[in-house]
Amino acid sequence: MDGKPLVSVIMAAFNVERYIERAIRSALEQTVPNIEVIVVDDCSTDKTLAVVRSLADPRIKLYKNTENRGPSFSRNHAISKAEGQWLAVLDADDWWTLNRLEDLLEVAEQYNAEVVCDDLYLIEDGADVPWIRYFQSREKVIGRMDDVRVLTPHKMVEDDYAVLQPLIHTNFLLQHDIHYKDQIAFGEDYVFLLDCLVQGAKAVIDPRAHYYYRSRPGSLTQSAAAGWENWARLLRELSTSEPYNLHRDVAQALQKKIRDASAALEEIRARQLYSQRKFFAAASVVAAHPELLISYARHIKHRLIQ
Questions:
Q1: What is the Cβ-side half-sphere exposure of residue 252, based on CA atoms within 13 angstroms?
Q2: What are the start and end residues of each CATH 3.90.550.10 domain in the chain?
Q3: Which fold has domain 7-215?
Q4: With bands split at pLDDT 50, 70 and 90, how would you rate the model's confidence at 208?
Q5: Binning pLDDT at 50, 70 and 90, where does residue 152 land?
Q6: Cα 102 to Cα 155: distance, rounded to the nearest angstrom
């Protein structure tokens, strides 16, 4: 590869021998050829390393952690090795359409943006086609996404773009010393993108889908209750921390999201109590949170007609 790459693709990898070749090939086969793919293996115990080495492409740079440190550490390691003008994040079990980088770079140039995000195809492991696009699944919250939108810190929190994987100008990250936070075990992608926005990045969202987001067994999935608990915990941490609490509209949006998460947890709690036939306890939860009454009544009706 002559000169510096235009785009550095960073990838944290852990026990993804079945998936990583497709992810890497989707990067190597981009219509923008001037790229590098930086893979950081997080002490995989399967054949992940062997698969990456077998690809034997000079654009691939492979590093291995000395101990298992998690995705944030691995991505930061990859960023420290990146030489591209732009940086793109690709999870090792996902993949891209082959024109993704070309399209996003065109949008970045058109809007003079430092961060560009796109829609995602949500696809089950082993499926041939996605079941839905991410923006379609969230139209009740964000509305219909037909045109390029500017993404602000407030809209990031209000609309909750938690799973977007951005293309970012590398100089912006370096100038503002932005990196993944190792101490965050949940929602690190969300915080990373939010950090870019609160530091003043001009960011836009391309409504076209170029990213295949795979849902697979053994990935970091969890129960609904655990998910909401972790989400509420993260939001509370952000709401009491700088620089997020210095932006009034962001702080207000965080508080609303905390209330939404708490309501979701209470609804889950009420349903669990009802399923355990603890009717009085379930009713007590609903009485303390009247906004749950409609959902709770719908749940009871469903159970009665089964």
A1: 5
A2: 7-215
A3: Spore Coat Polysaccharide Biosynthesis Protein SpsA; Chain A (3.90.550)
A4: very high
A5: very high
A6: 26
